[in-house]
Amino acid sequence: MYSWSPALAAEWRRLLSSIVARAGVDAAVMDEHDPTPLDELWRRADLGCVFMCGYPWVLRTDRPRLLAAPVPSPPRYANRPVYVTDFIVRADSAYARLEDTFGGTIAYSTEHSHSGYNAPRHHLLKHVSRARPALYRAVLGPYVRQRPLIDLVVKGEADVASIDGYALDLLRRHDPATAARVRSVETTAPAPSPPLVASSGIDAGTRERLAHALVTAHHAADAQPLLADVLLARFERVTPADFEVFLERERAARDAGYPKLA
């Protein structure tokens, strides 16, 4: 989910490999260039320690087991296991506010993404009315992953797109030239960070060792610089109840007659 540049992919490999090693678990690190769609990845029965968006997680009846969730280190996350969605436009565009993009084109990744769809849909509710049920001339998608949305905005094929704010923060650190080509015009309310999960078929002892290695990683001297490289303060345990907010925001949009971005 967060391998948006080669340098960033390498940092995640180092961090997660060290955590799996500390847990004493025999696991293969998946190639970050694997083109498998995320929804297919999340259905696999051999997930050991994999990021999963909380929105599709809470929608499933066969939910993978929660291990822990990341606490991003940038100040805007207030030292909590949360993230946000940024509405991005091209850096040199004339758009100063999100409302300036209304009547244009918005792009999204996939409908089962919180940062890419559920969050912007909920955020835009305050602008939708019976007199104005649609805010955009065109809605482009799905593009499956979020990284291509930056290219669409930069090329002028989309006026605005909604992307994971933590991922954008990571891109600013590891690929600042690309990140500088877009800017954020508005940010959504925080939501629970995508947790790391394991398949329910992985034995409970293995899951507990992985969870313990995650939530204690920030105490390990060798892991601290690895966490810093991916802008993390630490990992925290989370519960299913933490993710109910995704369903609440989905219901708010549907109850308001705005089930789709428009």
What does this structure look like?
By secondary structure, the protein is α+β, with helices and mostly antiparallel strands. The protein is 35% helix and 17% strand. The protein is built from ten helices and eleven strands. The strands form three sheets. It has a five-stranded mixed beta sheet with strand order 6-5-7-4-8. Strands 1-10-2-11 form a four-stranded antiparallel beta sheet. Helix 4 (114-124) links the parallel strand 5 (105-107) and strand 6. Helix 1 (6-23) packs across helix 8 (204-215) and helix 4 (114-124) crosses helix 10 (244-255). The chain is globular and about 60 Å long. The mean pLDDT is 95.
TL;DR?
This protein has 262 residues and is α+β, with helices and mostly antiparallel strands.
Number of discrete helical segments: 10
Order of helices and strands: HHEHEEEEHEHEHHEEEHHEH
The description of the largest β-sheet is: 5 strands, mixed
> Averaging pLDDT over every residue, what do you get?
95
Strand order in space, largest sheet = 6-5-7-4-8
State the helical fraction.
25-40%
- Estimate the strand proportion: 15-25%
Please compute the radius of gyration using only Cα atoms.
18 Å
Low-pLDDT parts are none
Give the class from helix and strand content and strand pairing: alpha+beta
- Number of strand segments: 11
| Head-to-tail CA distance between termini | 26 Å
| Quaternary structure classification | single chain
Give the overall form. Answer: globular
Topology:
Blueprint: H1 6-23, H2 38-42, E1 50-51, H3 54-59, E2 65-72, E3 82-83, E4 85-90, E5 105-107, H4 114-124, E6 138-140, H5 147-155, E7 160-164, H6 165-174, H7 176-179, E8 182-187, E9 191-192, E10 196-198, H8 204-215, H9 224-229, E11 232-236, H10 244-255
Parallel strand pairs: 5-6, 5-7
Antiparallel strand pairs: 1-10, 2-10, 2-11, 3-9, 4-7, 4-8
Helix pairs in contact: 1-8, 4-10
